[in-house]
Amino acid sequence: MNLIRRALLQTANWALKGSDLTLTDPKGWNVLGVGQTWAKVNVNDVTPLQITAAFSAIRLISEVIGVLPLHLYRTTKTGREKAKDDYRYDMVHSQPNEYMTSPEWIEAMCVSIATQGQAYNYCPRFESTGRIISIQPVLKSRVRPEVRQDGSLLYYLSMRNGQLLPLKREQIMPVRGFGNVGELEGFAPHRLHGNSMALTMALDKYAAEFFGSGGRPQGILTTKAEFGEKPRDQIRAGFAKYLQDSREKGELPVLDGETQYTPISTPNNEAQFLESRKHQIADMARIYRTPLRFLMEDDQSSYANDQQANKHLIDYTFMPYTNRIEKSMNSCLLTPQERRDGMFFAFDYRGLLRGDSTQRADYYYKLRLAGAISQDEIRAWEDLPLRGGNCDDLMVPINMAPNGLLEDVLLKNKGGA
């Protein structure tokens, strides 16, 4: 056994050739077939954050969802109300743990889902009462889900002391991104679209090398002199150093009479360099389902107003994230009895759907004429002090009198008849 182990270690050491096999450095994993793409560029879960278009999409999704108010509601006979008397309300609305605020926590979850396809949140509890102590987001790499022989599901969390802590689902609160049947974790975008991301990185690398070399194209150095392989390599290395020194000093390189440099690179305009970069921005927008206008790229689309554009973004980009988070919180932070009693977590989208002053005035006016809202409710939505008294009464369109008064008049007339 020791001989086999030693042989395997020697083989691995030869294959790695000095590369570090770590979770953050992909070089050592290339021998295992992970990270390489058609463009010969390695990709990992950090790659989307290094691509400007993908970074902009991820930042848009995470930051906007992070600032959405998150509430714990309780169903009542007349609708729903915020369960502010429950300790979990302040936990998810303000501060889930001692080192993060609620927006930071939600933002971190969305970044993890967008880059790794999965988010985990460690929820330690008091053993005596089951009360949640805090909600702490943890890296996906620290959690390993496993289906046991009896069919039960456990999550093994790697602690800072190196020990593995077995946890049930409600103790780790997993939020699964887009995934397949039979998969306990969602798909990481860089694993499905690694070639597209690698192409974007290759374009960036080409642009950096081209403009970093002063815009000089690749070429072939020819001479009439005959030489072997070793002198050829020496001439190539010396000429490359000569070009680099000339570029750094701002001097014009000069060749002797029998040496000629022939450019062989395709001109940028013929290679459609700018068009390719523009296409990659649209490709990142497709991967993260984000309209181009929100990536600061003109997509020639038009909306009747900002409210309509925001609703499009909510329906097709934000809602899949928020719905997954809400359902996971309902499943892990609430008991089955509390869910049956009508308690649930939900994001408040009204801030995103808030139109301009003219649109809001028209909206309030129509609801008020229909007797659906009161004057104080309008003032509350506009962050104005409440007036009290009959300002909280629902009015009817006849003469803006309380609808109860109209009911009394109608009943009185009916009785008199």
H/E order of the elements? HHHEEHHEEEEEHEHHEHEHHHEHHH
Q: What is the total tally of β strands?
A: 11
**Helices and strands: which structural class?**
alpha+beta
Instruction: Based on Cα principal axes, name the global outline.
Output: elongated
Helices, by number, come to 15
Low-confidence segments: 11-20, 29-34
For the report, how would you describe the main beta sheet?
3 strands, antiparallel
State the helicity in percent bands.
40-55%
Strand arrangement across the biggest beta sheet? 2-1-11
Distance between the termini: 104 Å
What's the alpha carbon Rg, rounded to whole Å? 31 Å
Mean pLDDT: 80
Beta-strand portion reads 5-15%
Structure description:
- With 417 residues, this protein is α+β, with helices and mostly antiparallel strands.
- Among the domains are: 28 residues; 45 residues; 56 residues, no CATH class.
- The longest helix has 28 residues.
- Helix 3 packs antiparallel against helix 5.
- It is built from 15 helices and 11 strands.
- A hairpin with a 5-residue loop joins strand 5 and strand 6.
- Strands 2-1-11 form a 3-stranded antiparallel sheet. It has a 3-stranded antiparallel sheet with strand order 4-3-8.
